[in-house]
From TrEMBL:
GO CC annotations on file: endoplasmic reticulum; Golgi apparatus; perinuclear region of cytoplasm; TRAPP complex
Protein name as catalogued: Trafficking protein particle complex subunit
Family: Belongs to the TRAPP small subunits family. Sedlin subfamily.
Subunit field text: Part of the multisubunit transport protein particle (TRAPP) complex.
UniProt keywords, alphabetically: Endoplasmic reticulum, ER-Golgi transport, Golgi apparatus, Transport
Source taxonomy: Eukaryota, Metazoa, Ecdysozoa, Arthropoda, Hexapoda
Length: 139
């Protein structure tokens, strides 16, 4: 089960962070921002900063005793970070990719809203509800 989902802007500012346990939200903010260093490293080593985009899914960024952190980046340098429990051994790489594809499609729907101002935090209730269902159902 995913315990935290974050959408990070191209300037590394958080646009949306949702956690299943609000009491641990500060801990997840720290883990998400720590993973951004790994994202930048993977992007520069893969040549994505030079415009060569082959794979948007970055895979496992790093893991701790309690959590595994996965990353995904769009063509416009928007980053998606998903934190899952390490105890969840049934979660396959293909399922994580599916979660990111759904998040990317959901994000695209939000950005295409004519009332959304680019660069602002995402405050859509529909976006939040759908992200929570993705986190709980792992789909």
């Amino acid at each position: 089960m995913a315990v935290c989902v974050a959408v990070i802007g191209k300037d590394n500012s958080p646009k949306f962070i949702s956690c299943l346990n609000p009491e641990l939200e500060l801990q997840f903010h720290y883990k998400v921002h720590t993973s951004l260093d790994v994202v930048e490293e993977k992007l520069s080593s893969a040549g994505i900063n030079t415009g060569d985009v082959r794979e948007l899914y970055l895979g496992l960024l790093y893991s701790t005793e309690e959590h595994k952190i996965f990353g995904y980046v769009t063509n416009t340098k928007i980053k998606f970070i998903v934190v899952v429990e390490s105890a969840n051994t049934l979660l396959r790489d293909n399922e994580v990719r599916t979660m990111f594809r759904r998040l990317h499609n959901l994000y695209t729907d939000v950005v295409c809203n004519p009332f959304y101002i680019p660069g602002d935090p995402i405050t859509s209730k529909n976006f939040d509800d759908t992200v929570k269902s993705i986190m709980v159902n792992n789909i």
